[in-house]
Specification:
This protein has four helices and five strands; from the N terminus they run βααβββαβα. The chain has 140 residues and is an alpha+beta fold. The chain has a single domain (2-118), classed as Gcn5-related N-acetyltransferase (GNAT) (Aminopeptidase, 3-Layer(aba) Sandwich). It has a five-stranded mixed beta sheet with strand order 1-2-3-4-5. It binds coenzyme A. Coenzyme A binds at residues 23, 76-78, 83-89, 108-109, 111-112, 114-115, 118.
Length: 140
């Protein structure tokens, strides 16, 4: 049975990094197994929900937010062995619980757009972004 947990106190950081290594998450830090930087970033986060298969983290998502007006969703990942079982949907539901009044935003990874449509997200007509380097997601 998959268990969902909120908060950072219970996080097994090695297991979280293993997940992001598999899914190439957290702007490339997962692939580099950069535990220290991932931990620092996650500890500065408004809310984090993790999905567990026994003692292994197989899904995670986090919310950067002021808790009043806006919430930005990042680092949504479900381990490839566990995808298409409803875990991603449950992670987002848990993340939004109690914060349903916020204006939520996110940038969808290529290929994941349909997942967000199914959760009620829509394309934004005027989203702008500035990255610290080049990105295949930015238009010229
Ligand atoms: C995208 C991702 C988070 C979806 O998680 P998941 O646990 O597989 O999704 P769920 O099983 O909860 O899917 C919910 C619904 O969306 C659909 N769905 C999920 N991923 C989809 C995809 N890539 N394309 C089309 N539909 C998709 C499911 O079929 C399901 O539809 P249903 O309700 O009609 O049965 C997961 O595939 C993932 O981590 N991918 C790699 C990293 C990534 O792309 N992250 C997104 C960063 S923005």
């Amino acid at each position: 049975m998959i268990e969902y947990k909120t908060g950072t106190e219970i996080i097994n950081w090695e297991s979280l990094v293993d997940l992001y290594f598999e899914t190439d998450g957290v702007i490339g830090l997962g692939r580099e197994r950069d535990l220290a930087t991932i931990k620092k970033a996650f500890l500065n986060t408004y809310k984090i929900v993790t999905a567990w298969d026994a003692d292994k983290i197989i899904g995670a998502v986090r919310l950067l937010s002021d808790g009043v007006c806006y919430g930005w969703i990042h680092d949504m990942s479900v381990h490839p062995d566990f995808q298409k079982k409803g875990i991603g949907q449950e992670l987002i539901n848990e993340l939004m619980k109690g914060d349903e009044n916020l204006l939520f935003g996110l940038t969808a990874a290529f290929g994941s757009e349909e997942f967000y449509y199914k959760l009620g997200f829509k394309r934004h007509k005027s989203v702008m972004a500035k990255y610290p380097g080049e990105s295949i997601y930015l238009e010229d």
